[in-house]
Amino acid sequence: MIPDTIAANHVGDALQTRAISTLTRIEWSALMTMHNLADGHARQGDLNQAVLDRLPEIFRKAEASLQLEVQQDFERVFFKAAGQPSVLERAQKPLYHYSSSLSIEVVANHFRLEGITVGLLHPTFDNIPDILKRHGVPLIPVSEDVFTDPGSLDCWDEIDALFLVVPNNPTGLDPRVEDVERIALECRDRGKVLVVDFSFRLFSDHLATRDLYAFFEDNGVDHIGIEDVGKVWPTLDLKLGSLIAGPRRWDALEAITDDLLLNVSAFIFALIAESGKSGIVERARSTSATNRAILAEALADGPVSPVEGGATMSVAWLHLPEGWDCLELCVWLQTRGIAVLPGAPFFWAEPERGSRFIRIALMRPLGEFEAAAKELASALTDYQPHSGLEDD
Q1: What is the four-CA torsion angle of 174, 179, 184, 187, rounded to 10 degrees?
Q2: Which residues contact 266 (CB under 8 A, 6 or more apart)?
Q3: Are 260 and 339 found together in one domain?
Q4: Whole-angstrom Cα distance, residue 118 to residue 164?
Q5: Which of 77, 150, 186, 374 lies 20 to 30 Å from 16 when distance is taken between CA atoms?
Q6: Residue 352's domain spans which residues?
Q7: CATH at 339
Q8: Of 223, 121, 337, 366, which Cα lies nearest the Cα of 129?
Q9: pLDDT confidence tier of residue 1, bands split at 50, 70 and 90
Q10: CB atoms near residue 313 (< 10 Å)
Q11: 36 has which bridge partners?
Q12: Average pLDDT of the residues in 173-186
């Protein structure tokens, strides 16, 4: 185990370098913390023992199989769980990458080449705007209100694409399927590209009830979907990101993908498929719900309260009392061996709007999370704002 002093220094440094810190850098540092409640990756450690015992067999089978065979096996497992069976019949097959962030990189590269201006959901995880901005893609923030009244969006004439995250990270906002369909038709009628990052889709109670990719195709929506297994499968970050795109975008996205990688390892496809067949999705949803309840109980009657977002998300969004600052609090929590994410970077266009929020990752083993939640609740009760952190 890494000493607490080393862990605190690493995350404290990442947080205090405010001008250059990113959420991912804070998450990386948090990997060395006793109570890592920062990154939203699946770390609940509940892979079926039978799957673990069969790892050599799974590897040998993947090695002996055609790439297309292992991909199709994964697709049957994942897109069945996601309620999107039409993907299996598409002429334009999913494009696979080692992470959903790399999938976003491909989209950003394409948008740069096409000169596309993007309306991007605000707040959302900061690596999405950072990747797009690194490619010189102009961004306009779009409020979560777009889900309830897409016609009222005042930047329609300024954007070429609308980029959403469903359910949204960090707030957990989980719009109705009907609302996503209304937005899709609005994009079609206005000649805009619709991009939806569905990385947290398996924590939604209703997204699997409608085949949205079939709806996009049947209604002529120019669309790109981003999918991810890294929020559900606790496979030590052996994961998959993918792009599902309509015919207007697929060829260009395929060409960029080809420049970046030949293929994702057949072993990863096989491992994800085998563990998916063992009920990992159901267990992940149960872990998320259980740990959310544990957190709420630990925080009850304390100064910090959870924000209800609608989805059974694998992260929790917490609201801080007036006078508290998320960055100062996160640095102080490190002295207690606790790592969480500050809310400010999620508000990529107006960081000050996130200063009174923190985000908690829920996908941890139940016993470890319960201990961490109790430590967090105790620390929040002891905390005094303006605890000596100097202004930059």
Answers
A1: -100
A2: 62, 63, 65, 67, 70
A3: no
A4: 10
A5: 374
A6: 4-46+280-382
A7: 3.90.1150.10
A8: 121
A9: very low
A10: 27
A11: 339
A12: 97
